[in-house]
Amino acid sequence: MGHDAPVTPGLVLRGVHASIQWAYYPAATINGYTIMRDAAGAWRLRATVITASAFNLRQRPLMFVATHNKGAWYWPIEELTQTDHTITARLGAPVE
């Protein structure tokens, strides 16, 4: 995702393998996620957590990392909520 490429509101990305990182430390391992861009342009995440570190998830800054065939996509996490094995989050703009 390039910084100058327009991204359509309503866009939905789904994937399987991802993680949440605090610096170099793993905060959560994800198996299944959906990222959606709403009408206001905000990025929203819903993900299923396999493993998590409660301490690391409370640290900032956190980064959502979604791997793909040619590398990874990165989104800074602006706000995060965990309920059982589900994480929901408001994400910042994707970074490279």
Please tag this protein with its features.
single chain; 96 residues; mainly beta; six-stranded antiparallel barrel; 1 helix; 6 strands; 62% strand; globular
Outline:
This protein is mainly beta. The chain has one helix at 54-57; strands at residues 12-22, 25-37, 43-52, 62-68, 71-83, 86-91.
List the helices and strands and how they pair.
Blueprint: E1 12-22, E2 25-37, E3 43-52, H1 54-57, E4 62-68, E5 71-83, E6 86-91
Antiparallel strand pairs: 1-2, 1-4, 2-3, 3-6, 4-5, 5-6
Number of helices: 1
Number of strands: 6
Indicate the mean pLDDT.
Answer: 91
Q: What helical percentage do the residues reach? A: under 10%
The termini sit apart by: 8 Å
The order of strands across the largest sheet is: 1-2-3-6-5-4
Order of helices and strands: EEEHEEE
User: How would a textbook summarize the main sheet?
Assistant: 6 strands, antiparallel, barrel
Q: Give the helix/strand class.
A: mainly beta
Poorly predicted ranges: none
Morphology:
globular
Strand content: over 45%
Structural Rg: 13 Å
Question: What does the model show?
Answer:
- This protein is mainly β.
- The chain contains one helix and six strands; from the N terminus they run βββαβββ.
- A six-stranded antiparallel β-barrel has the order 1-2-3-6-5-4.
- A hairpin with a 2-residue loop joins strand 5 (71-83) and strand 6 (86-91).
- The chain is globular.
- The mean pLDDT is 91.
